[in-house]
Structure formats: C-alpha cells, structure tokens
C-alpha cells in the first residue's frame, strides 16, 4: 500500500476552506451529481448571501459615495467587432504546452514562473529574476519555440508523469465562442465576454450624454465574464465563469497619473475597510506594461497558497476608446468646456481611462480565507476542543442574527417568532429550534452569524433575551427593544463605508 503523502500546511488550509465552503452551503462544484465541471462553481444558500453583500458594498462604495460615478448593466453578448477592437480576438491568449505522457496541459509561462519562484525560495534571487526576464523577452517577441527550449533547458518536468516529453508551445485563445442566429450558414460567431469593461466603453457616450456627465466621471458595472483558462486550479480563484466588478474612470489627458494614484489608494482602503488585514495585502507594480498602458498595479492578497492578485488598477490611456472609434467609425470624443491655463476651453478629446477591476469570486475567497478561524479551547469537561467559526465583518455575514427559543414549548417559540417577525424587515435573520442550544450556537458559528438571540422563561416575564456575540462568545442580557439598534450598529454597511471618507 502507498503511504499517504504529508500535506503541506498551505494545501491543508486551502483544503479545509474548500471543505468548509461545501459542507456549510457556501460553494458547491457545478453540476456535482454529474461529477462537476472543471473550474465552474455554484454558490449555495449562504454563499449567495455573502457574495451579494460583497457586490452591494462595492456598488455602494463606487456609485453612492461618488456623485460622479454611475452604473450600467450591459449584455454579456456584444457585437463581434467589439472584441476585434479590444484586441481580444487576436491577442487574448495564453501559451500552452502538453505533456505527451500524462496528457496534461499546462501554461508554459506558469511552468517557468514556478521554476523561478523555486530558485527564489531557495535564496537564489538573481537566478529567479534572470529566468523571469528571459521569459518576458521571449513572450514579448512571441517566440514560442524559445519558450519551449527554456522549459527543456531548465529541465522542467510534468508533475504528473515526471517526464520532459513536451509538445510544442501553442497560443490558446481564452474566449468562449458560440453562434448567434438560427440558421447555421447565416450565423455569426459571437463571444461570451471575457471582461465586463468593454460593455462600459461602448456605452461611454450613451451615459455621458444622457447623464450629462462631466469629466472626470466613472461608469461601474458588475457582471459575469468567461475565460477558457488553460489551467484552472485553486478553487474559485481561477474559474472559467466568474464575476467582475469593474469601474472605468474617464479623465482629461494629462491628469491620469493623479487619478491612478487616487484609485490605487482608495481601492486598497476599501479592502482594508472590509476587514482584510493590511499585512495580508500588498501592491504588485507591473514593470512590463501593455503597449498602451502608462501604469498598472495589482492589489494582492495573501491566500493560503501565497500572495495573488485580487484587483487590478490600470491607467489605460485613451487606447480603448480610440480603438472603438476606429472600428465603429463613430467619434468617441468629449467636449471639455473648462478653461486651460491660457483661458481657452480644453475642447474635444478622447478621454483617458483609469480602470479598477476586482473579481467578486476572488474577493469572496479572500474574505472566506480571512474569516476562517480555529480557536483552541476546552470543552465543559476540560478536554481540548477546537471552535471553528467564520469571523466575517458583520456587514457581509450571510445571516445577521439567529433567534432561538430555549425549549420548544411553554410559549417560547411564539415569543421568539415574534422577535423574528419584528426584525426580518431590516435584517436577514433566521429562527432555529432544533437540537440543544449549544449545537445551535455551533451551527451559527460555522456560517459566521454575528449574533445569536436566545429566548428563555425570563423573557416571558420581563421581555429580556440573551444576545451572544460570535467572536467572543460573550453573552449579555438585553431588552428586546434594544435588539434592532445593537444589530444595526454592527451590521450596517455604514461601518465599512465610513472608513472610506
Ligand atoms: P490573472 O493574472 O490571475 O489571470 P488577470 O490579470 O488576467 O488575472 P484581469 O484581466 O486584470 O485579471 O481581471 C481583473 C480581475 O478579475 C482579477 O483581478 C481577478 O480578481 C478577476 N479574474 C480574472 N480572471 C479570473 C478567473 N479566471 N477567475 C476568477 N476571477 C478572475
């Protein structure tokens, strides 16, 4: 019999989070009864609440707190020329390579980057950086044979077969395509959008004119995006169907650097306000920029598998709107009647754009990883016991409060249900009467409910209840009339949003 391999801590932490997410109704593999579909996931009853809260918070922070930012909800399907103009038809691809023995497919660039990281981890920073530079030069020159040679030279082997029996490196376009139209001959190839940004760019003038928007202004959107990722690993970190929250901020040429700095700071603050610790967030400034970009940075979060991108902030010049002007032959200009230093109107120009783009699913994984807590304690008999709970910021917790009658008789359920009825219009609250009260507390801890409210015999006499706080397990006796303000104080989006001003 083979000995089980010892798991590394990072793997086991991720595994614990994945199992927890599945067991407690946050994330399920898609169409699981058919053994799932690679890198596609469904959100369960608590997952959808958490994700909706994250999206609502982003939406409010971006639109409600900024009078010069409005939202749109563009269609997933767009005219095929959109993707010619954006460069996705010709350039949105990853270099892939197959191992002939294991038949496994890899991203060639990732194999080399992993090797570089290995050198760096072993203390050989120079060798790691040198390898990264060589890779960057080869990719820039689209020298795929060179990339393959580098894999061979570095003696990189397939982790499954252990061999270096590699195919050629080929470019693989990440867009999913389908046919629009009932008759095959007349059908046009259209794409499932690989990013939400283009739905904003093509609506730039619609929004600017109908909303009488004055530069600088932004357009925000939340929506699905689809990428046929070559290697999809790490749970919901890299999915083939995912959700983006993007905002394009249109600015006067020459002011883009200042807005880039502004959004860089503002977006990082937002993640911190949500409860992600500053020490687990870092910048990754892009040294190699896309030819049209003049600055780009990622906000990275320290997942159980290391620091990885959750959001990108990009200064994209006027590239996107210029390209749409070229392909659509419709002017994408703005008339700026503000006066320059010579007292003349700035006049017509194609605005520059600073983009902020965060994945809702990656953010979900970041807050879930951060919330997952194991507290070592002791049980009633003094034996060691681990309490697992999800320490979400109360504003994003799926359920805000659970209301329990101590027992299922003597009018306690009725009293508890009356409290539920009173609070349910303001908060997502639930009623729970099954099992012993300790088990009920545990179940709420596992889904991250910040408050549990217990109704007992004393409640019938004086209208007081015990309220238990998730993070400390502290219990307090309070009057029923105080519940609304206690809960609302903690769970209000205001708690997060006020940290942004
Ligand atoms: P990566 O380098 O990890 O592939 P990217 O640089 O291609 O990401 P962008 O195109 O900048 O990502 O997309 C913006 C955001 O969308 C990312 O920061 C990420 O949060 C999210 N995102 C991108 N691809 C995926 C995916 N396959 N699954 C989940 N989220 C994604």
Which descriptors would you attach to this protein?
globular; Rossmann fold; alpha+beta; 17 helices; BirA Bifunctional Protein, domain 2; Glycine--tRNA ligase; Anticodon-bd_dom_sf; binds adenosine-5'-triphosphate; 3 domains; five-stranded mixed β-sheet; 36% helix; Herpes Virus-1; ATP binding; 501 residues
Q: What is the total number of structural domains?
A: 3
What is the name of the CATH class of the largest domain?
Alpha Beta
Which whole number gives the mean pLDDT?
94
Q: Can you list the strand order of the major beta sheet? A: 3-9-10-16-13-12-11
The number of distinct helices, counting runs of at least 4 residues, comes to 17
Report how far apart the termini are.
Answer: 61 Å
What assembly state would you assign to the polypeptide chains in this entry? single chain
Task: Write down the Rg.
Answer: 26 Å
Low-confidence stretches: 1-7
Structural class: alpha+beta
Strand content: 25-35%
Q: What is the share of helical residues? A: 25-40%
Number of DSSP-assigned strands: 23
Spell out which ligands are present.
adenosine-5'-triphosphate
Largest sheet: 7 strands, mixed
Function: Catalyzes the attachment of glycine to tRNA(Gly).
Protein name: Glycine--tRNA ligase
GO molecular function, one term: ATP binding
EC number: 6.1.1.14
Describe the structure.
Substrate binds at residues 107, 195, 242-246, 355-359. The chain is an alpha+beta fold and 501 residues long. The protein folds into 3 domains: 27-87 and 180-391, Bira Bifunctional Protein, Domain 2 (BirA Bifunctional Protein, domain 2, 2-Layer Sandwich), CATH 3.30.930; 93-173, Herpes Virus-1 (2-Layer Sandwich); 392-500, 3-Layer(aba) Sandwich (Rossmann fold). It contains 17 helices and 23 strands. The chain has helices spanning 9-23, 45-64, 80-85, 88-91, 108-121, 125-140, 144-153, 197-201, 204-210, 256-273, 319-328, 360-371, 412-423, 437-447, 457-462, 483-491, 494-497, and strands at 27-29, 41-43, 69-71, 93-98, 105-107, 170-173, 177-180, 188-191, 217-226, 241-251, 281-285, 295-303, 306-315, 334-339, 345-349, 352-359, 372-378, 384-390, 401-405, 429-431, 451-455, 464-469, 475-479. Strands 3-9-10-16-13-12-11 form a 7-stranded mixed sheet, with helices on both faces. A hairpin with a 6-residue loop joins strand 4 and strand 5 (105-107). Helix 5 (108-121) packs parallel to helix 7 (144-153). The N and C termini lie far apart (61 Å). The relative contact order is 0.11. The structure holds adenosine-5'-triphosphate (ATP). Adenosine-5'-triphosphate is lined by residues 195, 227, 229, 238-239, 242, 244, 309-312, 357-359, 361-362.
């Amino acid at each position: 019999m083979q000995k089980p391999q010892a798991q590394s801590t990072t793997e086991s932490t991720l595994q614990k989070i994945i199992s927890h997410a599945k067991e407690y109704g946050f994330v399920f593999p898609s169409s699981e009864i058919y053994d799932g579909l690679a890198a596609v996931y469904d959100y369960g009853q608590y997952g959808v609440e958490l994700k909706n809260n994250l999206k609502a918070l982003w939406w409010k922070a971006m639109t409600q707190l900024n009078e010069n930012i409005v939202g749109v909800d563009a269609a997933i399907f767009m005219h095929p020329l959109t993707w010619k103009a954006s460069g996705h038809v010709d350039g949105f691809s990853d270099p892939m390579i197959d191992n002939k023995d294991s038949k496994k497919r890899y991203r060639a660039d990732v194999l080399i980057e992993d090797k570089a990281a290995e050198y760096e981890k072993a203390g050989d920073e120079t060798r790691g950086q040198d390898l990264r530079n060589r890779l960057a030069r080869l990719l820039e020159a689209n020298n795929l044979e060179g990339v393959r040679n580098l894999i061979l030279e570095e003696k990189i082997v397939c982790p499954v077969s252990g061999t270096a029996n590699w195919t050629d490196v080929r470019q693989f376009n990440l867009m999913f395509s389908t046919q629009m139209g009932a008759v095959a001959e007349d059908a046009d190839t259209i794409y499932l959008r690989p990013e939400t940004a283009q739905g904003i760019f093509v609506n730039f003038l619609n929004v600017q004119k109908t909303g009488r928007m004055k530069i600088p202004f932004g357009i925000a959107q939340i929506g699905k995006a689809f990428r046929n990722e070559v290697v999809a690993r790490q749970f919901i970190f890299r999915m083939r169907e995912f959700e983006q929250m993007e905002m394009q901020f249109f600015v006067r040429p020459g002011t883009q650097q200042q807005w880039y700095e502004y959004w860089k700071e503002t977006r990082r603050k937002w993640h911190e306000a949500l409860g992600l610790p500053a020490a687990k967030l870092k910048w990754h400034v892009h040294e190699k920029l896309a030819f049209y970009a003049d600055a780009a940075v990622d906000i990275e979060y320290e997942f159980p598998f290391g620091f990885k991108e959750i959001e990108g902030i990009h200064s994209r010049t006027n590239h996107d709107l210029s390209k749409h002007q070229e392909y659509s032959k419709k002017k994408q200009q703005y008339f700026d009647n503000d006066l320059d230093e010579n007292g003349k109107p700035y006049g017509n120009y194609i605005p520059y754009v600073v983009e902020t783009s965060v994945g809702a699913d990656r953010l979900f994984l970041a807050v879930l990883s951060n919330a997952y807590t194991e507290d070592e304690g002791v049980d009633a008999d003094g034996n060691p016991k681990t309490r697992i709970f999800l320490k979400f910021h109360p504003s994003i917790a799926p359920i805000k409060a659970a209301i329990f009658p101590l027992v299922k008789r003597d009018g306690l359920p009725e009293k508890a249900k009356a409290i539920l009825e009173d609070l349910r219009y303001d908060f997502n609250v639930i009623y729970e009467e099954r099992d012993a009260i300790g088990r009920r507390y545990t179940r709420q801890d596992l889904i991250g409910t910040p408050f549990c409210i217990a109704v007992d015999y004393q409640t019938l006499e004086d209208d007081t209840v015990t309220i238990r706080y998730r993070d400390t397990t502290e219990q307090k006796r309070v009057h029923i009339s105080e519940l609304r303000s206690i809960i609302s104080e903690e769970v209000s989006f205001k708690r997060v949003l006020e940290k942004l001003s």
